[in-house]
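Batch 3, record 17
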Amino acid sequence: MSQIENVIEMRGITKQFGNFKANDNINLSVKKGEIHALLGENGAGKSTLMNILSGLLEPTSGDILVNGEKATIDSPNAANLLGIGMVHQHFMLVDDFTVTENIILGSEKTKSGFLDQKSARKEIKELSDRYGLIVDPSARVEDITVGMQQRAEILKVIYRGAEILILDEPTAVLTPQEIDELIKIMRSLTKEGKSIIIITHKLDEIKRVADRCTVIRRGKSIDTVNVKETSQQELANMMVGRSVSFKVDKVPSEPKETILSVDNITVKDSRGIEKVKGLSLEVHAGEVLGIAGIDGNGQSELIQAISGMTKVESGKITLQGKEIQNNVPRKITESGLGHIPEDRHRVGLVLPMSVEENMALQTYYKEPLSKNGFLNQGKMRSYAEKLAEEFDVRLQSVSEPIASLSGGNQQKAIIAREVDRNPSLLIAAQPTRGLDVGAIEYIHSRLIEQRDNDRAVLLVSFELDEVMNVSDRIAVMYEGKIAAIVKPEETSEEELGLLMAGSSLEKARASVENPTAEEETIHE
Amino acid sequence: MNVTAVLQNVIASALIYSAPLILTALGGTFSERSGIVNVGLEGIMVMGAFSSVVFNLAMADTFGSLTPWIGMLVGGAIGFVFSFFHAVATVHWRADHIISGTVINLMAPALAVFLTNIIYGARQTDFIKARFGFFTFPVLSDIPFIGPILFTNTSLPAFVGIGIAILCWFLLFKTKFGLRLRSVGEHPQAADTLGINVYLMKYAGVLLSGFLGGMGGAIQAQAIASNFSASTIAGQGFISMAAMIFGKWNPLGAMGAAIFFGFAQSLAVTGNYIPVIQDIPSVWLQVAPYIITILALVFVIGKSRGPAANGKTYIKSK
Amino acid sequence: MNDKRQTLNNLLVPILSVLMGFLIGAIIMLVFNFNPIEGYSAMFKGAFGTPFYIGETLRQTAPLIMTALGFALANIAGFFNIGVAGQALLGWTGSVWFAISFPSLPSPILLPLSILAGVLAGALWAGIAGFLRAFFGVSEVIVTIMLNHTSLYTVNYLIRNVMTDSNDSTPRIPEAASLRMEWLTDLTNNSTLHAGIFISLIMAFLVWVLIKKTTTGYEIRAVGLNPMASKYAGMSTKRTIIVSMLLSGALAGLGGAMEGLGNFQNVFVQGAVPTLGFDGLAVALLGLSNPIGIIFAALLFGALKIGGSSMPLAVGVPSEVVDIVIAFIIFFVGANYVIRFFLERNKKKTAGPIEKHDSDKASGTPESLSGTEKADKKEDKE
Ligand SMILES: Nc1ncnc2c1ncn2[C@@H]1O[C@H](COP(=O)(O)OP(=O)(O)O)[C@@H](O)[C@H]1O
Ligand SMILES: [Mg+2]
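Prediction for the assembled complex:
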């Protein structure tokens, strides 16, 4: 009886931001004790829907039923009282506080006016033992691993007595081992009768943990399916809205001379932790080298080192025969580097500046855009107009702020700027993150075009299919080193997944051929 | 003068100059812990000083020796009201914190001198009759050596300030209110998701800073200046801010730094009697708090700029 | 795009702020039984009523333009240089010190060099904050506040102990170092008007050229708006920080030099850093960090200051009412979100739904000068 009862029913939820409908008449029902996946591309509206359920946002219209009764969830407190708790995509932890302080914040117990941390710690200990949520209650959040931060987040929710847990992209930041841990924790939670909504856009995870899955596309709910009866391909098609090939048209590559050579470099991150540990790789003219890996394995530091944003502690980087390690960024750029940075808003663009000024960001100091220290604004304008035309950047005028362009068009503007300088090496870091399918295809074809023009392309992406489809060779990065270099036609996502998790190539090959060898491998 | 007398003099005058700084620095701590930068402490002190003097002049006959203490509370109350501007501007009207604070600093002396002009027909007030004066602790002053140095003819407001600092430390680090206040200054969104009223906490932080800063100004006026004019508060608000930073946004640290800065300020006045110190050009003593703060920022505190979300406007999305 | 409407709003914000500031001033006068119409007309007469007053107003305007330009330039680079007051004081002292140290030099040499001494003093003083920010990441707000007080005590000490023998003011500067010009003095019935106003107007134009037309200005704007992206684009953020602070201090120092060589003709012990600094900050905020806006805002504040000093005698209103008006004007400029909110809402009523718009920062920010508006900073949320 209680098995089929819906603990949550969201009916016809619409959420409007200005004129934009982030959620458009979405329906979602969650049964008691199930793990329900919410699947959708970046920007589909998953987080928005869950923020509504957890009281952070108010829906423009629609009803929410909790345990069959209509509920008004107008604040996180209201959600809390109804037993709904959410672990946000970007953790909501106070870095400066201890784990305990973070967990009790907002529902503190006091003893004669003072915080009663002792009994809180005891209670946390009990919960943490019960569900296998291992944390160090007195450690400060900024000192613990991402995995432990996530467990602290989950504890925070359980501490408040939540029966319905929402996890927003919980695996994006975890190592494979931590993902396994998380899955165990989720199972132990549902065993106790709790229900879980997990947001993700990773199909294999859904197959691994979820009972049912609701697919959301561009703010609309497409369908709810039983995961067991649905193939990954079917899920993918529902998510994207057409049958997806994910294949990029390209002729086989003809690699030529070495353009970039990274030789045994080590790099530390801003906190002084060594993130790149004696890494070597080469990229040739006329090839795309893709770097696959889980976020946080040193990819960002590697790119920053090549582009001169971070100090290289030891080792050598050679670009077209010239040593460039620890040069200032401009010198490296001028030696032939083009760079599509990972974070286009923070790093790639000056958002309040106009499109034309952004297009000039790398070349403003040279003729024809300026002379003797004075800008030539006419040339800046015509240059920007030419680039916008060539790279299909949709805009009303090049004098509008680049912030008013859509994400895809902003990214195209960056690509235009970087590619037009004819760099011998083009670094593309997460070049399609958060973009729609059309823009993704366009950007992929541009990257291939660069390769065909005998440039070297270094692609870094967390999306395995992107790496598989665009690259000519794939270097898997694990803990600051290249774990293996494989050819896309000779590997599979499963094999890459294992490599990214630290297996050796032989072991990975062996276990892909013989899936039963490993306990919790991917279904299908 | 014998050693005891010199020490007594130095410590007492250091404490006299510290008292306003301690309270105001504590005020700044609350504001910034809630994430609101408050460069308007100077202006808040001006309002506290002005209102306490007005009260003192009017009511000294009624309240006698209690007058300065009540005047201190009046100053606190006016500071509280005045800081409301800063709270509304920064929390609800999304004004830049530094601009709003600067407005407070522009507004307060103008308003206070304007009102002085209206009430007294001059740009400064008369001298008050009921001052804080000196205080000798009963019992404690009898302790050999320490008693005469620390507890004789000294500044009672400073000891009250030290007591308040200790209270503030407990409030900030050991109570529910403190935990919530700090969470709002560090990560308002996290606090929001836990059902904490972010705006309310920020108001609390700013209004507390107004109350404490107003009391600080009142002490400055009633213990040191003895009247009110445009120059009654001359940089003490900024020194208090420095003390807060120097004390790393911790009430006890801020108190310690405030005492140190009070000491430096007092040396510029009393230093003439002390060997060695009297040879240092007074300008060094005057600028010491400022230079030390800059050096501390460069070498000790560095890039850690206090609460993580300090100075950022929090916009709740709905 | 709604460029036009936003430009209009950008202009409406300061205009409405001024009106509301005056309105509050009027209310205050009413509350204290003064007639605001009489008060304001006394102020207006005291600012523009005779050639003499016009001269005084323009004289007051000149250094305000300079300190405002100084503040604005740093602001465009992303720094809140609250230290223009101290930089102006040092510029003032430096120029006077130089002038009285070399009294026998001929005017064509002494005057420019004295000005230069002031400019350099201001630049170096601000440069300290720039240097510490660039290399140690120390907040320029705190450092410049601390330097303001340091400059005050240092200057007072120098005047008493180095420049004079225990006097509270230095001797007058030699005639050869004076910015006063006979024809200006004659034209304005012996006002203290001096050549500073022309220098200020020229500097406003030069700053405009620098910001809008040069690669250095482009770098300053880019670093101010997004230091990370500027660094990626190969700009040296450290250099830009230091350059903009040096220029900012130089402009403030020039403003101070005008006080020394033009208005007062000496330097004297003061109780606080000159209000010129904070007034300049106010002017820059009201002028939206735009040189043209700054000229108008400085003229307004110059008139307020000079006109305000006529109010006590003419109608018995304390001149501080003017400072209250100024503070409120800046308050509204700073809290422009509210004004924009109401403007948008009115537009919405008349023109149907509009795009979401969350300009959450003061409009005294650089983009107003670069002609672009702080557009919606919507992040791509994954
Ligand atoms: N507070 C907001 N204001 C305006 N737009 C928003 C806001 N939050 C999200 N959006 C937009 O709504 C869409 C859906 O976002 P989100 O729910 O975060 O997507 P998902 O979690 O599925 O990746 C995105 O286009 C995003 O830019
Ligand atoms: Mg999301």
